[in-house]
Amino acid sequence: MRTERHSKHGAPVTMRDIAKEAGVSVATVSHVVNNKQGARIGEETRQRVHEAIDLLGYRTNALAKTLSVGSSRFIGLVADAIATTPFAGQIIHGAQDEAWKHGYVLLVANIDGNKAAENDAIAMMLEHQVRGILYSTWYHREIEVPESLHQTDTVLVDCFSTGSGLPAVVPDEEQGGKAATQELIDAGHQRIAFINTTTPSPALTGRLAGYRSALESSGLEFDASLVISAVPEQEGGYEVTSAIIASGASAVFCHNDRVAMGLYDGLRVRGLDVPKDIAVVGFDNQEVIAAHLRPPLTTVALPHYEIGAAGIRVLLGLEREQDNALYLINCPAIKRQSV
Questions:
Q1: How far lies 131's CA from each of 69, 70, 124, 231, in Å?
Q2: Which of 3.20.20.70, 3.20.20.120, 3.40.50.2300, 3.30.530.20 is the CATH number of 173-300?
Q3: Does the structural domain 15-61 have CATH classification 4.10.410.60?
Q4: Tens place of pLDDT for every residue, the chain, 339 residues?
Q5: N or C terminus of the chain with fewer C-beta within 10 Å?
Q6: Where is the HTH lacI-type domain (predicted)?
Q7: Is 183 in a helix, a strand, or coil?
Q8: 276: Cβ–Cβ under 8 A, 6 or more apart, which residues?
């Protein structure tokens, strides 16, 4: 039986070491080592990989049993900084709890935008024959999918890639925008402003579409002058306060809770009261903001925990397949005292 050798740095030999020695990709090494059915690999390439394995003394000691059955009880999650953001780390919690419920353990790699770390993390997960990989970003956006993710079952979480063929689990931005606006309509408001973001994103277009849909459903005319753009930060909300007051709106739907916090500040400086003078609804349900403003902010939650959990269910085939491979997760309204 081959004994395990170590690289010149003292670490066990990995698939990346074999790939470098043989002049091939990590995915090719994985296919050869695991005898991947249907992989189009020439005999000469296979021979180079086997020669590199013999030369470096590689063996899959960590998961020998896993290799015999072709998969493991691990699921990978490659995250772009979500572990360190104020609330999006709930994606990891949701995925972890759901994975455990079905007998799997989550392997998490927080790569923080580092492409080399991302490649290494995916290679490690392929080497360990994970059941599949969740690939997640810290805010909802379109991405370019790393090529190596096509070597295993992959689900995109809080992101999507048009034309990739990969399923994506994302928040329903339009439904969330409609829910936020509906809170204000139900409270009797008819002239409702919307502070939208300046950042191109699904949130920009989706929440605006939801705002318009709620107005239309209630028989209220859309007025483009009531849609005011602001940077999606506290300063943005503060800076457009004068425009909001000048619009004559009795209520405002803010793109996110940080914008709402800035609007609160701007209204307070001008001696106006929330919700007596102007009602305000946010988006995100960022607890450190929404629950502690005075008055506490009515908002719409980005359901990060459920997005993570749903990602696991989609990966395991436990969700009904969607024709467009896009799984929209409901964004619920969180009622407080700002309306």
A1: 11, 9, 13, 41
A2: 3.40.50.2300
A3: no
A4: 333 444 544 567 788 889 999 999 888 888 888 777 777 888 999 999 999 988 887 765 444 445 444 567 899 999 887 655 666 689 999 999 999 999 999 999 988 878 899 999 999 999 888 999 999 988 899 999 999 999 999 999 999 999 999 999 999 999 999 999 999 999 999 999 999 999 999 999 999 999 999 999 999 999 999 999 999 999 999 999 999 999 999 999 999 999 999 999 999 999 999 999 999 999 999 989 999 999 999 999 999 999 999 999 999 999 988 878 999 999 999 999 999
A5: N
A6: 13-69
A7: helix
A8: none
